[in-house]
Amino acid sequence: MLEIKELYFRHKDLKEDTLRNIEFSAESGKVTVILGPNGSGKSTLFKCIMGIWEPYKGNIRANGKELNKLSYLERAKTFSVIPQEHEITFPYSVFDIVITGRAPYIGLFSSPSKKDYKKAEEALKVLGIYHLKDKPYNKISGGERQLVLIARALAQSAPFMLLDEPVSHLDFRNQIKVLLKIKELAYKNKITALVTLHDPNLASLFADKLVVIKNGKVVAQGKPHQILNEKLIQEVYGIKINIIQNNGFNLICPILDFLNYK
What Å distances lie between residue 12 and 15, 16, 82, CA to CA? Predict the structure, then answer.
């Protein structure tokens, strides 16, 4: 379990806190989505969890261990990270990218072992992209690249997977494909998956738990069908909506008043 309690963060050049009293937990085998508009503090929160930025108050625990007491190597074995964007210029193969997930287990002057190669190959097979193994990473599609990064994270064998807006640049089909795979991996491998999204419909469809933030503060958390409503969406996104319930999911439809301009 990932536990965050009374977390505060402020950039040195700012007078106001970027994150204020952030508190929630994320469970193993489930997908917890951090939902909020652009600029709400989602990426800042991720950087605090990754240890890139240090909160001035509060604590983060991963399976009972305080994050600030873990070494960089221990963090690398605890958290795998799938970034929002990942561009490279050198034509590394897909397999080259995935094998880097084994870096925490390879000595400084050592080469990948048979076990490392096996883990990378298994990850490619689980993600259904083994056929891309020898293709240049920078020549495959955006959806395929996201699956490669998830394969790299899976090869890392970390119990926590952090995904920062993993589908923001993908088309509708690939958004669904990638999020379905994340949910499947979390369930089957008992991974604690923490995902940031800004689309409430995608969050409603794929989250086991939602943590909604606005201006660096948690304004609601719980199961999507329990907390997503007209009042909350209007408060967070500033638009009027209608909720359509379908098979236990809340689908959010904006009310487009401007279409009535005639």
Answer: 8, 10, 27
